[in-house]
Amino acid sequence: MKRIGVLTSGGDAPGMNAAIRAVVRKAIYEGLEVVGIFHGYQGLIEGNMELLTLGSVGDIIQRGGTKLFSARSLEFRTEEGQQKAIEQLKANGIDGLVVIGGDGSYRGSMTLTKNGFPCVGIPGTIDNDIPGTDYTLGFDTALNTVIECIDKIRDTATSHDRTFIIEVMGRDAGDLALWAGLAGGAETIIIPEVEFDMEEIVEKLKSGTARGKKHSIIIVAEGVMSGSEFASHLMKHANIDTRVSVLGHIQRGGSPTGRDRVLASLFGARAVEVLLAGHGGRAVGIQNHQVVDYDMNEAFEKGEDFDLLMYQLSKELSI
Ligand code: F6P
Known about the structure:
Blueprint: E1 3-8, H1 16-29, E2 33-37, H2 40-46, E3 49-52, H3 79-91, E4 96-101, H4 103-114, E5 119-123, H5 139-159, E6 163-168, H6 175-183, E7 188-190, H7 198-210, E8 216-221, H8 227-238, E9 242-246, H9 258-276, E10 282-287, E11 290-295, H10 296-302, H11 308-316
Parallel strand pairs: 1-2, 1-4, 4-5, 5-10, 6-8, 6-9, 7-8
Antiparallel strand pairs: 2-3, 10-11
Helix pairs in contact: 1-9, 2-3, 5-6, 6-11
Bound molecules: 6-O-phosphono-beta-D-fructofuranose.
6-O-phosphono-beta-D-fructofuranose (F6P) binds near residues 125, 127, 170 and 222.
């Protein structure tokens, strides 16, 4: 292995830049060349890439977004697109590829590996939904962003004795909603992994008001339904008036937390080591505080674990 490529794909996540930096610096330290591929798999198909130096990744560890830009490529989902991508990798003398991204990006890298091109995945998504790793890059930063928003909304909710519904991202996963709801002291957390009971929610709101509570915060994960849909259910069901806040893409931005920067550095370095060892089709991650690499296919077949105890705790603490 003499030259490797690195790309970011799918929704950007804070910490991607720190991971790019780690990949480039570790690879150069090991005597490799690194090519940065712009705009994810679409840029790969189009040959949009350049050689990166130590200096190219200076002053980015603290920045959100991704220096390499990102995209969701429809063309790469076709066999023709995948073939073009492999031709570009070969034409540019690239021997292995580090893919930083979420679920769709991982599936892309599994396809490339299956077609004979070694790829290693670094989990970069605020959704925390990649099988085989306890945390993904960007999750901690997004979590802190959501908590800050909840705290601010609570101020105005209390001032007006209001119930607020806050819609949180996470695609089909409830991790961001659950963690933020627990940390933000939300009264109710609605996530795709657990069915909700409207009667129970209404009862809780009513008994809270009867006890003199000045506000209620309901977190709704986007994977269940939109905040406004939930608000109209609540209105129809119990005539409860609410205000809705959709946090949206604010959750994807901002300077990565220390935790995300450290994870990014560990993941980036490990990804280079995995490629140097000649392995493809693997992902790096963290399991029980240990940095690990593992077979991507097996992990995806097994699927994601969900922490039901944490959900249960969030209910116990918000009675
Ligand atoms: O996967 C990251 C994510 O932010 C999800 O939480 C969200 O559902 C999706 O991306 C939004 O995608 P887009 O930026 O393409 O609208």
